[in-house]
Amino acid sequence: MGKSCQRFIGIILMFVVLANMHGTMIAGKCWIVEYNLQLKFRRMDKKEQLEHLHRKMIDEIQDYAIILMDTDGTILTWNKGAETIKGYKADEIIGQNFNIFYLPKDRQEGLPGKLLEMAVKEGRAKHVGRRVRKDGTIFWGSILITAIHDEDNNVVGFTKLTRELRDNEIE
Hints:
Largest sheet: 5 strands, antiparallel
CATH topology of the largest domain: Beta-Lactamase
Distance between the termini: 46 Å
Order of helices and strands: HHHHEEHHHHEEE
Number of helices: 8
CATH superfamily of the largest domain: PAS domain
Number of domains: 2
Radius of gyration: 21 Å
Strand content: 15-25%
CATH architecture of the largest domain: 2-Layer Sandwich
């Protein structure tokens, strides 16, 4: 089965069963399913299409953890890169505070809070340091926290990008 058909397997199986009950050929059913989903996408207005594509873009990036947080550092969204780098599935981590990724010593010294404060004051905060995965292993990561502002320039949340560093990238 081609890659374009694999993501529709549950729907395709339903069509295959119906097609067999009516004695019709099952070839081309993947095209029909894919066509129906493309038709749904085409029925969205341009703004909805852009928002959908933007969300998919962020979700599918694998080399960077991209996290949306509220003003207290509570995790609101999670992408594939975050799962790969940090080891948590979205349903395990959404609602937790991002300080979970920091070493106990860094948490005791208030590093996560200081990074949020810096992002509020300067618009962003950069840091390179050791981080903790779900399984307890330590890795070197480069992070960028960016403050998100409303129309009145009030901070309403943060984005946090994390990239795992290789040994030759650690300064």
